Fold these 4 entries.
Entry 1:
Amino acid sequence: EAVDAARKALGLDDEATMFEIKEAYRDLTHKCHPDENPDDIHAMEQFKRVSEAYKMLTYYCQHYKYSFREADVKNFVIHVSQ
């Protein structure tokens, strides 16, 4: 699922809080930022993946009140894919 993939991209478990999501995003974007890694050709791709994962998870948390219950995740994925 998209939400699971986003959590994995940020190295988070199933019950991550918004604080943990933000912290993981900050750490990872600093590590993979293209300006910090000018010789790494994969840095931009990783930076984009991390940014998209963060965007999805923060949107999800704002609209579903930090819930990672299975039913809420399924409803979110259906809503996003429409």
Entry 2:
Amino acid sequence: MYRAKRTAAARVQVLKHPAYATTPSTPLPPPKETKPTSQPQVALPSQSQPSSNPIGTLQEYCQQAELPLPKYQFEPCAEGFACQVSAKGQSASGTGANKKTAKANAAVALLAELRHGQ
């Protein structure tokens, strides 16, 4: 225990060295002014290039457009599971043998709806 305290004290002394100072010796330049944008223009991937990860594509679209993340709801059904996803005031559903497949199918359907609406 004594050794650990000495090691910690020695490391504190090293961090107090001027080379590790948190304040720079010269003042920083003022930040560059940026013009605020009203609404970011976000494009969905084209339908000719289908995504191998539609869930991630939908989530990235929502993040880039500064929208809330998509909401997924699952229910058991005859085919396995049904999933309903909603984002940007629109919703779509998909089914699959398991929740993962149902979620991906719902994301594909919502991406198609969002593309159609643009």
Entry 3:
Amino acid sequence: MRSIEESVVTAMDGSDKELFPFLPYILQDLWGIGSDPKTILSLIKKHRNNYTDIKVLDWVAAKALCQSSYQKH
């Protein structure tokens, strides 16, 4: 199983987990970007009949996770 660092970097089309500590800087201007959860849920329901097993990555939460993890190091 991949670490959270590897998963986040891979999700951003990265290949080197050494990029992880730099993600807060790379993503620093993305705070205002995001979607309304109700909109996301309605899109999922519109395009999937069985959505109980679906996973959604909230990039704002991912950024906060990167920032939090980076500050621990």
Entry 4:
Amino acid sequence: MTLVAPPQSSKLPWLGRQLGANAVVGVRYDATELMQGLSEALCDGTAAVVQAG
């Protein structure tokens, strides 16, 4: 398996904290086989601030 592009997932927690978020809601995940041996995976969610009670 060859990684075509570097994963962006390592940037997501940092970006969420920069925005003041402490949770992620509405997470969606989708994986598609583009052709034999080539797949793409997409994941997104909404950064949110959760407050106690």
